[in-house]
Amino acid sequence: MLFYLNHQKILKNSLTKMLDNKSKNSYKTISEVVKLIGLKSKKGKTIPTYTIRYWEKEFKQLKPIILNGKHRYYDEKNIDILKKIHFLLKEQGMTINGVKRILNNKEPLKLDEMQNNSIKSLGIKNKLIKISNIVKSLKNLK
Q: How far apart are CA 78 and CA 74, in angstroms?
């Protein structure tokens, strides 16, 4: 009996490791994609898969494989699109229409390019704040 239990435990651990180490090219379930992207609900209790289903309706570029009318499976291309959508909406504060315009653009968009642009705009914002402070100090001199 003890041998059987140890054998079951070893098989379970092996299977768990195999599932955890899915290849990069394998299809992911919607809950795996949510975790991969880092989506969080406001309360932080449930996995917000509804967000991805909503994005599927809004963005025609998302085309997961749906089996039996229920289970969604995402390939690497769809996951990349979801990462871009998440970054632009949540990190950059863009609107859905703004993201649609970017995704409909023929030129490929890389997340690093967007981050570099946001850094440049941050620098401009800091310079404007400094100029504003200088103007305020000049007004106080009068």
A: 6
